[in-house]
Specification:
Blueprint lengths: L1 H35 L1
Length: about 35
């Protein structure tokens, strides 16, 4: 039962982590572009 409750939360955390990494990656690209200019 604990696994059934944990799984959706894990998926939500995983999706949020993907979004967070995506935004950090975009921010890093923008920062690199600014430095190159």
């Amino acid at each position: 039962m604990k696994i059934a409750i944990f799984t959706p939360n894990f998926e939500a955390v995983y999706e949020n982590s993907i979004l967070l990494i995506h935004y950090c990656y975009q921010g890093f690209i923008n920062l690199a572009a600014l430095v190159n200019i």
